[in-house]
Amino acid sequence: MADRDPARRAEILFKAAGAARKIRDELAAIQVYEVGKTWDEADADVCEGIDFLEYYAREALRLAVPQRLGKLPGEVSVLFYEPLGWRA
Quick one: angle between helices 39-63 and 6-22, nearest 10? Predict the structure, then answer.
C-alpha cells in the first residue's frame, strides 16, 4: 500500500466505509452474538469504525499535499509525509 497514490488509498478506505455502512446491522449482530454486547454498544462500535475509516481517508488526502515551510529568499523547504507501510 505504501507505493499507492494517496488518492487511491483514500478511495479504498471510503469504499470500505461504504461497505460497512451497508451491512451495519450485520456487523453489530456479530458483536452481539460473539461478544455479548448490547445492541446499542455494538451499533456504536460499528459506527465508530466507519467514522475512523472516513477520518483516515480524509487525513490521507490532506497529508498528501506538500506544505511549504518558511519564506526565506533562495530557500525552499517542503514538508511532506511518506507512508512506510508494507513493501513487497
Answer: 160
Rounded to whole angstroms, the Cα distance separating 59 from 24 reads 23
Residue 12 and residue 7: Cα distance in Å, rounded? 9
Integer Cα distance of 83 and 50 in angstroms: 22
List the grid coordinates of 30.
Answer: 456479530
Which residue type occupies 42? A
Q: Are 43 and 27 in contact (CB under 8 A)?
A: no
pLDDT in tens, the chain (88 residues): 567 788 999 999 999 999 999 999 999 999 999 999 999 999 999 999 999 999 999 999 999 999 999 888 889 999 988 877 766 5
Question: Of 45, 55, 48, 44, which is closest to residue 13 (Cα–Cα)?
Answer: 55
